[in-house]
Amino acid sequence: MRVLLWAFGLAVLLFLLLPVLAILPLSFSAGGFLHYPLPGFSLRWYRDFLASDFWLPALGNSLVVGLGASALAVAFGTPAAFGLWRARLPFQGAILAVLLAPLAVPGIVVAVALLLAFGRWGLANSHAGLILAHAMLGVPFVVVSVLASLAQFDPLLLRAAASCGATPLHAFRRICLPRIAPGIAAGALFAFATSLDEVVVALFLGGPGQRTLPRQMFAGLGDQISLTVLAAACVMVALSVLLLALGTRLRRR
Amino acid sequence: MPRRLGAFLLVAPLLAGLLLGFLGPIAGFLLRAVRDVEVAAALPATLRSLRDWDGGTVPDEAFAALATDLRAARLRDRATGAGILARAGARLNHAAPGLRSLLPATARRVAEPGEDRARILAAGAAWSSPATWAAIRAAGGPLTDLHLLAAFDLRRGVAGIEAVPAEARLYRQVVLRTVAIGASVTLACLLLGYPLAWLIATAPPRAAPWMLGAVLLPFWTSLVVRSAAWMVLLQREGVVNATLLRAGLVEAPLPLLFNRFAVLVAMVHILLPFMVLPILAALREIDPRLPRAAASLGAGPVRVFRRVVLPLSLPGVGAGCLLVLVQALGFYVTPALLGGPEDQMLAWFIGFNASRTVNWSMAAALSLVLLAAIALLVGLYGRLVGFQRVAPA
């Protein structure tokens, strides 16, 4: 019974891991086929990736949009979480529902609604518009993550700081901020990862100038898949592993 | 009070930003499902002239008003490129087929000198039929249920609400398909995910982090990358077919891609971590003394699981099912990449209506259906279980 369960569980784990692991070596193929055995190893598809006119700019766009969205989400999400923690506001539940709403609305509805509104405001087909949209999608993670780390923070410390003559801002910066920094960083990381992964909003809201890495991959996945797309997939997986490792370290602290 | 005010001032920027930049646009978009503005924007005088019309012979002043409206709309379209006439024509085409092209054609006619009524009637035979004018009057707004009905393949006929002809039906099937795909993916995730979560929860302390890592790695890997992986695996000349052919298990490559099978497999793969993580969290919270106590009282392993472990892990199961189902219903990328035309879900048709046919109203009506389904699920869950456990892991 126990053996059977282990076999089943390991099979499910393989099902989770294998698809991604199976395609990564293909990107190092010397040939152009999408199956094994490889005719030999080469880095030609990575050379293609680096030399092409659109993959590197797409990577650049992804990083710029991700960093911008993450910074914006932290700048607005951290004070909001602190405010929610400081005092019980009237309509606290409704406020929290608004702040977390971006988690619940399907991407396609967000994409189409923002395309309509941002188009009118002149924000469609611009980096600013995409950064703003991704920041709104990422901000719930910042709020939740900062609230979680504030739950471990003793508010008495703030009062102690105030009684020693610190202004509220000073007390926040010197006493609270260092303690909730891992929570803020985790939220920023999650917001960045969300933006890096996001494709539907980027597809609808962005113009040709806002091709991000996932959007470029989506466009390249037709009937004829070039192995350059797989090289790009490898780059994205490497980024994800990096983020996962960072996230795990943050959780340990 | 000052503390509350200070706290509120900290929350206010984000709250205002999200209300204006997120919920506002979504509400405005969804309102398009029931607003009827296109015809009122293009033909205001015509609508006024038809207000007291009895449905019989079309009055002369209606022809005069139509000519005035068309001339004005044509001038505005030329000056701004707003496409007022095109949109009104597209809207009227639902009830009076042919008006999509007839409206601009008539506008060109009445721009030339001559008597209005004669030129309008010369532009197309539809103008001599009272039904055309009735369609204009019915589309005058400000509210309509046209698009919401259309989302269920219904329309308003002479005798009230009726089903559209069989060959024009589309969305009822799309809604059912979306629910069916969502439900099957959720069920499959539960069947695969629960044993895995239980295994991780009971694994030796050295193995558990690695097993959890194997769940988290795909969780952090981009959705597009994982869809791409399945495309490469399942292609006609992809990894799976090549392997099967070489092993001699099949004679010819299997058609594994662009069908329901591919969509379901990839969606289960993508959403499985959302099932495993909450169940694992629930299982880890169970006091280990409880199953031991049950065993010491003489219950066999199966009975311990059924009577103690399973009931205590049900909140995690509920959270996992909610997370998977809500996300599955809104899937766009994976069916678009891996499915055929018969496998596209509601999200694809929302995108199609918004970007290709520029029918915002239909896109909004379908979005309302999707959001209503999600709100129903979330509300039901809140009633039955509560929301303490939805945050994964």
Automatic annotation (TrEMBL), chain A:
Q: What is the topology of this protein in the membrane according to its UniProt annotation?
A: Multi-pass membrane protein
Quote the protein name from its UniProt record: ABC transporter permease
Instruction: Tell me where the transmembrane regions lie.
Output: 54-82, 94-118, 130-151, 183-205, 225-246
Extract the CDD domains matched here: TM_PBP2
Q: Which Pfam families match?
A: BPD_transp_1
- UniProt keyword Nucleotide-binding present: no
Origin organism of this chain? Answer: Falsiroseomonas selenitidurans
Extract the SUPFAM superfamilies matched here. MetI-like
> Which compartments is it annotated to reside in?
Cell inner membrane; Cell membrane
Boundaries of every ABC transmembrane type-1 domain copy: 59-247
Give the matching InterPro entries. MetI-like, MetI-like_sf
Keyword Membrane attached:
yes
TrEMBL record, chain B:
Q: Which parts of the chain span the membrane according to its record?
A: 179-200, 212-233, 261-283, 312-338, 358-381
InterPro entries from the UniProt entry = MetI-like (IPR000515), MetI-like_sf (IPR035906)
* Presence of keyword Phosphoprotein: no
The superkingdom of the source organism is Bacteria
Any idea which UniProt keywords this protein has?
A: Cell membrane, Membrane, Transmembrane, Transmembrane helix, Transport
Say if the entry is tagged with keyword Transmembrane.
yes
Q: Which family does the entry's similarity section mention?
A: Belongs to the binding-protein-dependent transport system permease family. CysTW subfamily.
Q: What name appears for this protein in its UniProt entry?
A: ABC transporter permease
